[in-house]
Structures are given as structure tokens and as C-alpha cells.
## 1
Amino acid sequence: MHGDYRLDNLLFSGDGAICRAVLDWELSTIGHPFADLAYVVMQWQMPPGSAGRGLAGVDRAAQGLPTDAAFVAAYCARRGLTGIADFGFCLAFSFFRMAAILQGIAKRVADGTAADPAKGRSMAALLPLYAALGVQALDHG
């Protein structure tokens, strides 16, 4: 699995129709392919902006982007799957994983070792949202 699979780690052709490269592989590891799928969906549920980098509230249809359900359905169709049982668990795992990463950033800010303390505080402020959305994914997934 890639580990940080998202739109801003992809390079597309000039017309945006073809993904030409996947960047930023330092978090790659052996893992379940649904983890990368859930990571994309997780990010899309976050608020837009430099810290959240999500698509929550964005008119995705106007941007040519699918809904979460359509994205997962397209993934399943390409893989020959009828669906993903317990996808809410996969999504919750992504939210909780990111919350743990943000806790590490918050600790570095508190210790005075963060490379960019202002950005670190901004990112760490999202920790409660990631945790809450993780619980929500378990409850509704």
C-alpha cells in the first residue's frame, strides 16, 4: 500500500484524463489495498484548505470528481468486487491513523522540535475532528 495516496500525490496528463505518476512513496508498506482507498475517502471528508486539504462541502460534481460512494463503486467495479464489507472500519482506521500522526505533530510542537510550529499547531488543531469522524465512520460505516 502507498500509505499517503491522495490527489495531491498524483501527476496527471495535461487534460487531466490519465494519471501519469504516483509520488511520495516513503510511507509505503505491506498492507491491505482498501487502506489506500479509505485514505482517499477520508481526506475528501476533511475541510478544504491548507491544513485539512479535503473536499468537505466542495461541489465535487462541478469539479468532475465523484462522490465517495461513486468512487468506492468504481474501485469495486475495476477490481471485480460486489462491494466492500465493513468499509466503515477501513475508513475509521484511516481517521484514527491520521489522528495518531497529528498527535505526534502536536507533541513535536509542545517539545519545541517541530520544523514549522505554526503549521504544526494548525494541523494538530484538526485532531479532534479526525477522531470524531473516525467514530462516526464506525457508527455509520
## 2
Amino acid sequence: MNVPSRVPVTVVIPTRNEAENIADCLASAAFADDVIVADGGSTDDTVALARAAGATVLERTGPTIAAQRNAAIAVARNRWVLAVDADERITPELAAELPGVLAAPLHAAYRVRCRNFYLGVEQTRGGWSRDWHVRLFPRERRFVERRLHEGLEPIEDVGELQGTLIHHPYRSLAHHIEKIHRYAQWGADDLFERGRRARWSDLAIRPAWRFVQSYVFEGAIRNGRRGLVQSLLGGYSGFLKYAHLWAKEEES
């Protein structure tokens, strides 16, 4: 498939200590005529590698991923923006699709499906196989600034792209668990600031239901031991978030 070059789209990538990922991510975005890396204070070689690859780098752009994205969007050179994470890769199919879409947009924004890989294997069944996010949008739009699961502000007219993003969210099982602990704290902080408090059911019933929902109803059971590990860790993640929330209540 012929991948175009110099497509009039701005690719924005938030980073923080992504030296292992940034070069491959930027290579997949080489077709774009404007690539902006919004760094949140990396202490590794992320910034140097991004600059060496030709990207525009904004340093210390905010405390959250949403703030980093928004800082990059604010200086985008093009009308349309494609938001990508450092652990994602733009497929040749998506790159080839963009020129036609941008030449005559039929929708106010577009969602893209992420093809998630877990411990080296693509997850084609279960909730991880149905992972869509609005990633292509005009530069007037912004992400809602919260610590966890940031999303673009609501848009009614959203189309779907055929091309996909390749997503490797975890380098290893240890990395998965490390991110669970970090994200659980962020999630608790967001809930606490919104006035939410942990109930007994949040600590006991919600994590168990999250496991059952993922493993049984979303079909992770068909992914063998990977599906079991994913679902158990998903339940643990939910428990840990509300345990942190409860602890913040006790400390306040």
C-alpha cells in the first residue's frame, strides 16, 4: 500500500519518559506535514529522540495527558488534528485513508479503532477488540482535562475511519501492574475532586462485577489465560481506585 507524504494534518503526541516508543511512533507519522510532541517532563531521551526525528517539541506542557494534547492542538498548523499516543502506531491503511477524508470531510470528527496487543498477541475477542476513540478532529476542539481516561469534548456528528491504530499499552506484565497502581491513584484523585466518596459496594461489588463483565459478558474467556489475567487485573484496578478514594476520605 502506498503511504502518502506531506498530508495536511497535524499529529499530536503526548509523552513522558517514552524513549522506548517515540521513534517508532514518529516513524509511523512521517506522512504528516506537522508533528508535535507535547512532553510532560521526561527524564529520559524522549525529547532528544523526538527532535532528532524532526518533530516539534513542546516541553513541560501540563500535569495531565489532556493538558499536553491541548497545548499541542493550540499550536497546530493544520485545520485537522490526529491525536496519537506514544505507544500507538499509525497503520499504512489509516495513513492512506486520510487524504481523501480531509479533502472532503463528511463529519465533524472521526473515531478510530485501536488494535490492542497484550503480551505480544492481538486481542481480537472481548472488550479489548472493540476499542474506538475519537482521534481525528478540527483544531478548535479540546480534550476534557482530567487525569484519567481523558476524552475529546462531546461531538454529535462523528464518523468512523476504516484504518486503525496499533496499540501496545504494556511492555510486560510488570509494566501493566505498575500502570494499574498509577492510574488507580489518578482515578481516585479525579473522583475525590468531583465530590465522590467510596461506598461499600464500590470496594466489594464493583470490582467483582468488573471481572465478570469482562471475562464472561465481553468474552475475554475466549482469550484463554490472557483473558483471565486481563479480567482479574481489571477487577483489581477497580478495587484499588476506590481503595485509594476511601483512603483519601480517611486522611481528609
## 3
Amino acid sequence: MYKFIADNVVVFDIEWVPDPASGRRIYRLPDTASDDEVLEVMWREGGATPEDPRPYLKTAMCRIVSIAAVVRKKVRSDVRLELVSLPGLHDGVQQEGEIIRRFLEAVGNLGAQLVGFNSSNADLPILFQRALACRVTAPTFCHRPDKPWEGADYFARYSDFNIDLKNELGGFGKAAPSLNELASSLGIPGKLGTDGADVINLWRSGDIRKIVEYNQFDALSTYLVWLRSAYFSGRLTENAFVHEEQLLESLLHQEIEDGAEHLTMFLEVWKAFRQ
């Protein structure tokens, strides 16, 4: 279990889809091949079967379409929460490189403790791979201090500035739960109407807002799992834990008032689980 909670914590989740441009280069397909044709080749080469026609593809041949995060900032005893999305709910499609650059730059500038679920095996590898593919430079994020106590290090093995909750809590093999399974077992909303397998269809139909909404649900679920782990490990007292749940509930109410109607579903499910 991690040893401390930093003043700035970013609990994040990433959504990605197969990238036809990468597929064309990897499989030497002609420019005349349509995106649909390229995707079929990518899935076939990735081991498609009648039971699993769209297998999970290596992250190097995918592109990032959305990043969502709950940002926790502590100044003295005052804790503030913010729900951040790249792109935002009303932004539409954004350039992949710009999404990655803005996220890495923000995390690096904050020196934040980065928290994800399966982030060490999935989210961070695609973030780094696609940063290279998009020619993104992120020197502040990539800076590595000479000594562990001199600042954030996102590349050090077992660094407490890079926490993967699946590694901390999930175990390995068939016993390892998904985020949905773990969150639901803890009384935290998991999947709410949309699944990861739906993201490619939403992307191809141009429904980027639905992807961002789904991405936010996963970031919120991950945050609540992290909050529970912070209480379990004694990093938060019971009063502080209850207060931070209330802070998140207030944040959800504010986001809903500002037009994020989809969060009403998350809030209602969360309240029902707690009752």
C-alpha cells in the first residue's frame, strides 16, 4: 500500500480506439483501403474469432480519444475536487496530441500523485506510446529527481507517485476483478449503460460526448475506490473520509447544475448503494 497522499492527486482513466492510420502502416495496407477495411484486418490479425470478433488490440496500434480525471488539491487542511475531461463534454473531437500534451503537462506541473486502475499495464503504456507517435514533448512530466524525496517520479518502479489500484488491490489471474466488479462490490457505481466495447462504435458514429461521459464514470469510480483505499490504509481518518465523500457528492451536484445531466445517474446509483 502506498506510503502517503500527496497534496495534489490526479485519479484518471483513458479511452482509446483502434487507429486505422497505424493499422495501414503496420500491415502495409494501401491508402485506398477504407477505415472499415483496415479495422477488419487489425482485428483479424489481432486474433479475432466468431466468439470475439473484435479482440483487444495492442495499445501501440490504437489512438487516445478521451482522458477524464478527478483532481484533488489540498492546501493546508482545505481539500478541493475538480472533474476534468479532455476533450470537455461540449468540445467535440480534439487532436490526440493536444489531449496527451495537456494532460501530461498538467500532471507534471502539479507534481501530482497519479492514480489509475490497471494503469501500469494499459493507460500509461498507451499514453507514452501515443505521445511518441504524436511527437509530444513532456519534459516536466518526464523529469526524474536524483533522490525519491526530491519530487515526483512517474517512471520509478513502485513509486508512490504512480499508483495502480489494480496492482494494489486486485491480485492476478482469474481472481483479479475488473474496475466494474471491484467498484460494485464496494457499493460504488461501476458500468452505467456503456461498456468499453461500445467505445469504438460511439467513435465511428461521432458520438464523442457519450465517450466522455463514460470516461467520467470510470474516473469517478476509480476515485471512490482510491478514497476507500486511503481510509483502509489509515491515510484518512473516518471523519476525513466521510467529508471527502461529501465533497464528491457536492461536486456532482454542481456539475449536474452546470449541464452534466448524465452524472445524475451516477449520483442516484451511488446513493442507492449506500442506503
## 4
Amino acid sequence: MRAIRFSFFQMVRTMRRDMMLFVSCFVPIFAGLFFRFAIPFLEDVFLIRFHMAAVISPYYRLIDVFLAMLSPAMFCFVSAMISLEEADEKTAAYLFITPLGKTGYLSARLGVPAVTAFLITVFLLTVFRLTDLSLIAILLFAAGGTMQGMIAALLIVTISSNKLEGMAVAKLSMLPVVGAVIPFFIRENIQYVLSWLPSFWIGKAAHENRVVYMLPAFALSAVWIGFLFKRYLRKM
């Protein structure tokens, strides 16, 4: 445990030397402030301007879902970028033969950032959410968002061979999150074409206010993570 903690803080020090990665960790806070205060203000402006009953407010729950996914996405992105940098510099191979080992390395680079992202997401949803979410819903959405972040990180480190490729893959790794939008805009059964995406079920749980839909979200996320994790281990 001591080796894992030391390795994690070493990653934090590396992150602080890269301004892009450092700022990425604060993006969820800025986004939370924008969602909580700017979005309702814009809603009032649009209501006056267009004389409509609602413009953005029907999608407040979708904004909460994106907030739940944002912090894990940023933290796991930073972790993935540092892992690729360590692979480029061959330092990861040296860490494997230290007391840290492969298991400790993976815990420090994926496990600890994911747990940290989950805790921060719970805080952000509690403070900045736009809709009335129960504590259970907040915890479930935070857990679902954290698993989405892990999927994105594993996609980056599995597909990319260096940090430059990782930047490009990072943009593509966010595409599976689009599934959360579908239940809010497509009501017909054709929406289930994307039911293989975990984010689809997170969006459905939010749209229909039924947390039971988080069960297939967790199951599919576990399948994605398990598959990508095995690919990553083979690559390592």
C-alpha cells in the first residue's frame, strides 16, 4: 500500500509539470460552476426572448449526467497520458520489477484516480446538480460516470502506442458517452440500437428517473473494462 501511495503521488508531481494535464483536473469544477449558475440564467434569458415555457430545463437531468461523467473522464485522461509517457520513457518497465509490481502500478495509475474521481463527482453532483437527485441516485450516477472514465482511459492506453497518439485517441474515447443523449431525443424503440453502450442506460436512468436502469449500465461497463483491461495487460 505504501508503494502504491508513493507511486500515485509521483504521478501527481508529474502532472503538475504538464500545464495541460494540471488544468484538466480543474475543468470539472469550472464546468460545475457554469452548469449551476450560467445554465439557469440562460434559461431565463431564452424564456423571455422566445416566449416559451421551457428551453433548456427539460435537459437539466442530462446536464447532471454529463457532470457525473466529466470528472472521471478528466482524471482518467490525465492518468492515461502519464502512463503513455512512462511507457515512452521505459520507466514503467522498471517500476514493474520494484516492490510496486504490475498490480501496484495499475492500482496507482487506474484504481486510485478512479476512486478519487468518484469522490469528487459525488461532491460536484451534491453541490452543482440542477435537478433533485437522491443520495442513492448521486452515488449511482457517480459510480456509472467513474466506470465511463475507466473505459476511456483503457481505450487510450490500449490503442495508443505513444502520448501523441493518445491525444488523438482521447477525443475518440469520448464518443461512447454520446449514448447518454439518445433517450432524451429518441423515444421510439430504435433508440435501443445503441443499448450496447453503458452510457445509454445511464441516460435512460436519468431520463425516466428509474435507477434500476443503472444495473445494465454497470454490467456493460464491467464487460467493457474487463475486455480492455485484458488487452492492456497483453500489451504491457
